Automatic annotation (TrEMBL):
<keyword id="KW-0378">Hydrolase</keyword>
<dbReference type="InterPro" id="IPR050725">
    <property type="entry name" value="CysQ/Inositol_MonoPase"/>
</dbReference>
<protein>
    <submittedName>
        <fullName>3'(2'),5'-bisphosphate nucleotidase CysQ</fullName>
        <ecNumber>3.1.3.7</ecNumber>
    </submittedName>
</protein>
<dbReference type="Pfam" id="PF00459">
    <property type="entry name" value="Inositol_P"/>
</dbReference>
<dbReference type="GO" id="GO:0008441">
    <property type="term" value="F:3'(2'),5'-bisphosphate nucleotidase activity"/>
</dbReference>
<dbReference type="InterPro" id="IPR000760">
    <property type="entry name" value="Inositol_monophosphatase-like"/>
</dbReference>
Length: 221
């Protein structure tokens, strides 16, 4: 029986992650892009693709289905020995909505959850948003720097953090798969001010992102 879109997204993210582990610290971006492009061409040849590692194809703007992928999110962390905060993002947009998605953390090693009294907000380790300190002060939170957007989102999904805030700009492929996974886990996902996230736009730039527990959404937006 043919794979569903969700099954395909999960398999491709997982297999790309295994491939990246095998070539680390080589040219992960190119290796992952070539693998994902070939797999999507084989299994979903009629769908369009928007990828960080490939030229933008304007035909996606009139397509009903577009795979939004980041073959290696967190290239900096991938290149640093011992870091686990890099990811593979595979998402499917269909007629205005994200309908499938998967985030793989190939180097992640599960640790015991440690209860924390103060809320934890994960932010970019290289580009923390200027508003982060203000937001943290408003809810007496601790800021936790981390790499890949996928890694930060999964920290919230796993309950190791309470929110992920980004306000320095990103692209659709940075957040599409993480947002799908977060919503599937019952989390809030929106622009930093609460406006909806919109994908497959002519300009794939997104200014900001908020992923958090539902009870924090009204306070943080």
């Amino acid at each position: 029986m043919a794979e569903t879109d969700g099954e395909l997204a999960r398999r491709l993210a997982t297999e790309t992650g295994r491939l990246l582990v095998s070539v680390r610290p080589g040219d992960g971006d190119r290796t992952a892009q070539n693998f994902l492009a070939a797999q999507l061409e084989e299994h979903r040849p009629n769908d369009a693709v928007l990828s960080e590692e490939a030229p933008d194809d304007p035909r996606r703007l009139t397509a009903d289905r577009v795979w939004i992928i980041d073959p290696l999110d967190g290239s900096r962390e991938f290149a640093e020995p011992g870091r686990t905060d890099w990811a593979v993002h595979v998402a499917l947009w269909e007629r205005g909505e994200l309908v499938a998605g998967a985030v793989a953390l190939p180097a992640f090693q599960r640790i015991s959850r440690v209860p924390h009294r103060r809320p934890r907000i994960v932010v970019s380790r290289t580009r923390p948003p200027e508003c982060a300190e203000r937001v943290a002060a408003a809810i007496n939170a601790v800021l936790v720097p981390m790499g890949s957007a996928g890694a930060k989102t999964m920290a919230v999904v796993r309950g190791e953090a309470d929110a992920y805030l980004h306000a320095g700009g990103m692209y659709e492929w940075d957040s599409a798969a993480p947002v799908f996974v977060a919503r599937a886990a019952g989390l809030h996902a929106s622009r930093a001010d609460g406006r909806p996230l919109v994908y497959n736009q002519p300009d794939p730039w997104l200014p900001d992102l908020l992923i958090c527990r539902q009870e924090l959404a009204e306070v943080l937006t």
